[in-house]
Design brief:
By secondary structure, the chain is mostly helical. The chain has 23 helices and no strands.
């Protein structure tokens, strides 16, 4: 009778602690629930089924409190060697994922998948982990196997992302399109497809895709930005301008929108708009040499703001510091600096920058005229003559520069004759 009463008392205690713990969970008092589950576990020393159930509940509370390692220890304590408890192993795998132990999580999901090959959930978790561990080939194979059994938009996108990582662009595009057909209003899928099409320079494809999406979801700024970029890259600057103007009106102050708004405005000679947009982009990232260069160009071409020339010069010099010698950008920087000096009639400082610009981009034959003119102003007539004559040979006949060079040659020859 004494033994019976002791067992009954213990069971009653365990039941009370468990009831109180579940009540605490219903109030989201997970720390309190953990304490109560610990007390219930202390009284359930010989009941394996009760210990397993209580440990599962405790671990779930620990996970809610982001104590993943502690939850993993709780779950591991009730796992038996050689026995795969699906529920416990699944909870433990989730703990490993949350704490960043991806390899351990994959091992558990792989074992579970081997035991339950028809369980799609385990296969999906494996595919996701393979991608996170940069095993894109493994993810691609696992994802394709899942897709052969069920069409799940997220898995189709995961296969598309893996294929893209492996350089299989067409395969990637095909899977992303399948995902989009199942979920046409997913902005992430629209973005992924658009990026691939931009890489293929299929600007019309991007425009059709993003415009169709925006008709249904007009307030998506990210997709709107892609539409504007597609118009810009297609050189449809008027439509690009309207898109970017609306994005700014809607409150899009992102770097991408500000940078491309500036580039678009610059191409349309809207220098004030370009200056403002580049200025906003510069506040976000002041380490981009390309931004610094174009910001400077917008400054010295926008004459409405005082001291633009000084600010532009400072930006161009900063761009030189930031640039790994990219010929196209270096040409633009030095050409900009040369024009700044030339605009204030400082040919001595303009000349070396014109020469550097030409060394980076000799296809700009107009620089021959600028270099020749600097030498002419410095009364270095023989050198100036060489550049003007070179332009007559390499430049386009009967253009403004060509006619200027021809007249300059006549003038210089006259000066040289007088000096003799």
């Amino acid at each position: 009778m004494a033994l019976f009463l002791a067992i009954t008392f213990t069971a009653a205690q365990e039941t009370d602690f468990r009831t109180e713990a579940r009540a605490a969970m219903s109030r989201y008092e997970y720390s309190k629930a953990i304490e109560l589950f610990d007390k219930a576990l202390e009284t359930a020393t010989d009941d394996e089924a009760a210990i397993r159930d209580l440990s599962l509940q405790k671990a779930r509370c620990q996970k809610k409190m982001l104590r993943y390692d502690a939850a993993a220890e709780t779950l591991a304590s009730v796992m038996k060697p050689g026995v795969m408890d699906v529920e416990v192993a699944g909870e433990l795998a989730e703990c490993h994922v949350s704490s960043g132990k991806l390899a351990d999580a994959f091992l558990l999901y792989n074992l579970l998948s081997l035991q339950h090959p028809d369980n799609l959930y385990f296969s999906i978790q494996k595919a996701s982990l393979l991608f996170k561990m940069n095993d894109f080939e493994g993810c691609l194979d696992e994802g394709k196997a899942i897709c052969s059994r069920d069409s799940i938009p997220s898995v189709l996108s995961l296969v598309g992302a893996s294929a893209l990582k492996l350089g299989q662009v067409d395969t990637s595009l095909a899977y992303y399109r399948k995902a989009l057909r199942l979920n046409p209003l997913n902005p992430g899928t629209v973005t992924s497809i658009s990026n691939i099409l931009l890489g293929k320079k299929d600007y019309d494809g991007v425009i059709d895709l993003t415009k169709g999406f925006l008709e249904e979801v007009p307030d998506n700024l990210s997709v709107g930005q892609i539409l504007g970029v597609a118009y810009y890259l297609k050189d449809d600057q008027d439509n690009a301008y309207e898109v970017f103007k609306q994005l700014r009106k809607d409150g899009d102050e992102s770097y991408g929108t500000m940078f491309y708004s500036g580039m678009n405005a610059l191409s349309l000679n809207r220098f004030t708009v370009a200056r403002e947009c580049f200025g906003n982009a510069w506040q976000i990232d002041s380490t981009d040499a390309k931004l610094a260069t174009n910001y400077a160009i917008s400054l010295f071409k926008d004459n409405m703001v005082p001291k633009n020339q000084i600010a532009a010069k400072r930006l161009l010099l900063r761009a030189v510091e930031l640039t790994d010698p990219d010929p196209a950008l270096m040409y633009k920087i030095h050409n900009g600096l040369a024009q700044l000096y030339y605009n204030v009639s400082d040919v001595n400082n303009a000349l070396p920058h014109y020469e550097k610009a030409f060394s980076y981009y000799p296809e700009d034959k107009g620089l021959l005229i600028s270099i020749g003119y600097c030498h002419e102003v410095r009364k270095e007539y023989k050198t100036a003559l060489q550049y003007y004559e070179r332009y007559l040979k390499e430049g386009k006949e009967n253009t403004k520069n060509w006619n200027f060079a021809k007249q300059a040659i006549t003038h210089i020859k006259s000066e040289l004759h007088m000096q003799e």
